[in-house]
């Protein structure tokens, strides 16, 4: 159950989609001075080397962040994302890739709070060390699903949540929906962003159906793939489902997804941006 290590997949096309979406949401939320509570349910190590064995085993970053940094036709959102990744590398090429906690830490302000969850015994010490000097950050060695629910409603009155489990077990597909529903009941205003992999399309269709029938309003979905759905093994696409998205998000993603598809998969790229449930 704890075999997943994100270091094998850091910087792949799924990370690009996830972090571009995260960036768009947080940039919008930071336009208001009121403090934000940021909750990350599966934080990983916080950052990853692309030169070590794990990343070099899969080389997935080459079809993700590496291609994007080599592109020249980026829109403002992708330019900002690329500049943050370059900053993580001290503007010295591409040897490391930041995790979602790092993006949040560098976007959020002094008045905001970050709650980072990780239970992998190898990743949690790295996460805690990385953020030990930031008083805004609380690293929690506990289950992220339960941790999220316990943190709602937030004292800050505003919240952005990132849920991105590894889906090592099938029950995660059901658990993410249950967690969203429980969190939403405790704080209906939270912006909740859920990452999902497309390995078997029927699992994602069921996930969508459960959210549509949950009674939660204002849900959008964004998906990016390197190829069409397949009956073979492995992930062909990944997506982000966002509850209470900023009003700017759909327009930004409608502009950004075609660009990402052309850059990362010019021949077989797939994408979609839909309103899953209206306001």
TrEMBL record:
A single GO BP: rRNA base methylation
Enzyme Commission numbers on file: 2.1.1.266
Binding site for S-adenosyl-L-methionine: 19, 42, 100, 118, 143-144, 164
Catalytic function, reaction form: adenosine(2030) in 23S rRNA + S-adenosyl-L-methionine = N(6)-methyladenosine(2030) in 23S rRNA + S-adenosyl-L-homocysteine + H(+)
Cellular-component GO terms for this entry: cytosol
SUPFAM superfamilies, per the entry: S-adenosyl-L-methionine-dependent methyltransferases (SSF53335)
Site positions (Interaction with substrate rRNA): 4
Record-level Gene Ontology MF annotations: 23S rRNA (adenine(2030)-N(6))-methyltransferase activity; RNA binding
Pfam families listed in its UniProt record: RsmJ
Alphabetical UniProt keywords: Methyltransferase, RNA-binding, rRNA processing, S-adenosyl-L-methionine, Transferase
Family classification: Belongs to the RlmJ family.
Function: Specifically methylates the adenine in position 2030 of 23S rRNA.
Subunit note: Monomer.
Protein name in the entry: Ribosomal RNA large subunit methyltransferase J
Organism (species): Alginatibacterium sediminis
Lineage: Bacteria, Pseudomonadati, Pseudomonadota, Gammaproteobacteria, Alteromonadales
Originating gene: rlmJ
């Amino acid at each position: 159950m704890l075999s997943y290590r994100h270091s094998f997949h850091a910087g792949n096309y799924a990370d690009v989609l996830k972090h571009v979406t995260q960036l768009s949401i947080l940039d919008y939320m930071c336009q208001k001075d009121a403090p934000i509570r940021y909750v990350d349910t599966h934080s990983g190590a916080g950052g990853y080397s692309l030169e070590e064995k794990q990343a070099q085993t899969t080389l997935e970053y080459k079809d993700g962040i590496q291609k994007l940094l080599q592109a020249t036709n980026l829109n403002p959102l992708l330019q900002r994302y690329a500049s943050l990744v370059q900053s993580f590398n001290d503007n010295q090429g591409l040897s490391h890739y930041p995790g979602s906690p790092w993006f949040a830490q560098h976007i959020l302000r002094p008045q905001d709070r970050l709650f980072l969850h990780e239970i992998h015994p190898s990743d949690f010490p790295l996460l805690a060390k990385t953020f030990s000097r930031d008083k805004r950050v609380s690293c929690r060695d506990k289950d992220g699903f339960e941790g999220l629910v316990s943190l709602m409603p937030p004292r800050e009155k505003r919240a952005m949540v990132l849920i991105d489990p590894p889906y090592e077990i099938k029950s995660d597909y059901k658990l993410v929906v249950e967690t969203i529903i429980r969190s939403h009941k405790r704080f209906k205003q939270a912006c909740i962003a859920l990452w999902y992999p497309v390995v078997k399309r029927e699992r994602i269709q069921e996930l969508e159906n459960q959210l549509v029938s949950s009674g939660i309003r204002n849900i959008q979905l964004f998906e990016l793939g390197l190829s069409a759905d397949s009956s073979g093994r492995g992930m062909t696409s990944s997506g982000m489902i966002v509850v209470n998205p900023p009003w700017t998000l759909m327009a930004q993603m409608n502009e950004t997804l075609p660009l990402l598809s052309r850059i990362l998969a010019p021949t077989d790229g797939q994408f979609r941006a839909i309103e899953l449930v209206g306001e």
